Amino acid sequence: MTTNATTLPARTAPAGPTRALRPRIRGTVAERVFVTRSLLQELRDPESMLMAVVLPVMLMLMFTFIFGQAIDPSGGYVDYVVPGIILLCAGFGASSTAVSVSRDMTTGIIERFRTMPLRSGAVLTGHVVVSVIRNLFATAVVIAVALLVGFRPDATALDWLAMFGVVALYILAITYLFAAIGLAASSPEAANGYGFILLFLPYVSSAFVPVETMPDWLRPIAEHQPITPVIETIRSFLVGTPLGSSGWVALAWCLGIVLAAAVWGAWLFRRKAGRR
Amino acid sequence: MELAIQARGLRKRFGSTEVLAGLDLAVQAGSIFALLGPNGAGKTTTIGILTTLVRPDAGAATVVGADVRTAPAEVQRRIALTGQSAAVDGELTAIENLVMLGRLSGLGRRQARAKAAELLARFELEGAAKRRVSTFSGGMRRRLDLSLSLVVDVPVLFLDEPTTGLDTRSRQELWAIIRSLADAGTTVFLTTQYLEEADRLADRIAVLDRGTIAAEGTAAELKARVGGEFVELRDADGELLREIPTDGSVHALRGAIDELDRSELGAVPGARIGIRRPSLDDVFLAITAGGTPGSPGSSAVRSGELLETN
C-alpha cells in the first residue's frame, strides 16, 4: 500500500513545477484495481453471466436427451459429450471479454489510463483474470448439472485437478485471444460477432461426434484444430480414454495461442489507443 | 515566469494528411491557455502529443521540464487529461470511478475514499454518488470526468473541448470550476472551438489553423489585430444583412454608412444600422480564412457556422 500520498499539498500549493507529482504506483496495485473494476462490471451484468451458464447447460441437455439416444442407444453418450460441453462453455464466456475490451477502447476511458503512469497491459489483465474466474465457475456449474443427468466419470482427485488445470489454461488462451480480438474490433457490436467462432469450432472437432465419422476432407481440419486435442485430454482425465499425444499437443496449442495473442494484443494496444 | 509547457516544431502526419506542420507553443505556469481552432485543425492531436498519447514525427515538447518523447512516464506524473469523449466508466458508480482513479494514482484505500467524498461534494455530485454513471446527464458526466482528473493535484491539466455539447448552464458551471483551478495554481491547457469560451476563460489564446499557430496573444491583443469598429446593418428581425469593417476613424465610419445608404440593402423596410467593436469571431475569420477581415466573402458568413463547417 502506498503511503506517500499523505504528503500531497493542500489546494493552496504554489503554482508551477514545484507542485506535487502524481505518486508512483507500486507493485500490482494497478492490476488489482482493474480486476476489481472488471469484477464490478461483471456483477452489474447478471444476464450475460446467466447466459454463459444457461446456454451450455441447455446444449448439454439437448445433446444428451434428444440426440444422445440416436447417437448411442446404450445411453453412454452423456459420458462422451460432457468434455465437449465443458469446452464450449469455457470458450463461450471468453467472447464477452472481446466486448468489454472493445468497449474500453471505444470510450474515452482508455486515454485516461494511457496518460497515467501505469503498465499498459494492466487494464487488459483485469478483464482476462475476471473472465477466467467466471468461466471456471460456469464450468463447475456445467459439470454439476452433468453429474445430475447421469455423467459418470471415473476420475481420481488428481484427474479432476489436472482436468481443471487444462480447462483453466484453455480459458486463459481463448480469453487472451478474445481480448486481442476486442482490441482489433471496430466496435463492441463487431467484437460480439466474433464470438460465433467459439460456438462453431467445437462442432468441427471431436466434441460431439468422433472425428472418424466425418467426411475425408473435413477430418484433417477437425483433427488439427486446437479444440480436438484439448477435448481428448479432458476426456482422458475424466473417462479414461487413451491420452496419446493429445496432452502435449493441447498444451502447445494453448501456450501458442497465449503467446500469439499477447504479442498481437500488445501491438494492437500501442497502435490503436492514441490514434485519434 | 516559468513555462509549464513548451513545444517546438511539432509535426505529425496520419497517412497522407499532415495534421501538424511545425507547431510552436509556450504556456506559462499557472495560466489558462486556450488552443482555438475549427474541427480538424489538429487540436486533439496537439493534446495527444503533449499528453504522450501520440508520438510526434518531429519536434520536441516538454511538460514541466519532462520531455514527452524521452520521459513519457515523467510527463504522465505531471498531467491529467479530460478528453473529448467522457473518460468515465459507465458501469461503475460515481464514487467507484473516483476511488478507482485515486487508487490508480497511488492513493491508499482510505485516502482514495476521502478524496472521492471531497470531490463529490465540490462538484455537487453527492446525491448521485452511488448511481451508475451511465444514468448521468451530460453535464454531470462532464463534472465527474473533470473531478477524476483532480484526484491528485497535478501541475498541468489538459482539457480537450471540455464544454462541447453542454447546455449554457452546465458550461458556465464548468467555466467557474476551471477558473478556480487556475486560481489555485494549476496550469490549464484547453482546446475549444467556441470563441466565447476562449474569450471568457483564457489568459492567452492561440489560433490553430492548418497545423500551425496562426496567431497568439491575449483576447484583447488578438482583437486589436483586426482593427476598429464594424458598421453593421440588420433587418427588422435583427438578422445581419451586411457588415463593413472600418479602422474606427470618423471618415471610415461615414464612408461605410454612405455605402450602406447607397446600396439597396439600406432601403429594406425596418433595417437598422449599428456599430460594434470587433469580436474574437472577426479575429478568427480574419486569420483562418486567410483573407482580410470583413472581405466580401467572409463578412456575410456568420462565424458560428464557419466553425462548424470548416
UniProtKB/TrEMBL annotation, chain A:
Entries under PROSITE patterns matching the protein: ABC_TM2
Name the UniProt record assigns to this protein: Transport permease protein
Protein family (similarity comment): Belongs to the ABC-2 integral membrane protein family.
Domain of life of the native organism: Bacteria
Positions of transmembrane segments: 49-68, 80-101, 122-148, 160-181, 193-211, 248-269
Topology term for the membrane: Multi-pass membrane protein
Pfam families in alphabetical order: ABC2_membrane
InterPro entries: ABC2_TM, ABC2_TM_bact-type, ABC_2_transport, Nod_factor_ABC_transporter
Biological source species: Agromyces soli
Boundaries of every ABC transmembrane type-2 domain copy: 47-272
Family annotation (PANTHER family): NODULATION PROTEIN J
KW Zinc (keyword) present: no
Keywords, sorted A to Z: Antibiotic resistance, Cell membrane, Membrane, Transmembrane, Transmembrane helix, Transport
Location of this chain's protein in the cell: Cell membrane; Membrane
Keyword Lipid metabolism in record: no
UniProtKB/TrEMBL annotation, chain B:
Bilayer topology annotation: Peripheral membrane protein
UniProt cross-references to Pfam families, sorted A to Z: ABC_tran
Cross-referenced InterPro entries: AAA+_ATPase, ABC_transporter-like_ATP-bd, ABC_transporter-like_CS, ABC_transporter_ATP-binding, P-loop_NTPase
Localization (cell): Cell membrane
Keyword Transmembrane: no
PROSITE patterns, alphabetized: ABC_TRANSPORTER_1 (PS00211), ABC_TRANSPORTER_2 (PS50893)
Start and end residues of each ABC transporter domain: 5-235
GO MF, one annotated term: ATP binding
Record key words, sorted: Antibiotic resistance, ATP-binding, Nucleotide-binding, Transport
Main localisation: membrane
Annotated PANTHER family: ABC TRANSPORTER ATP-BINDING PROTEIN (PTHR42711), DOXORUBICIN RESISTANCE ATP-BINDING PROTEIN DRRA (PTHR42711:SF19)
Protein name: ATP-binding cassette domain-containing protein
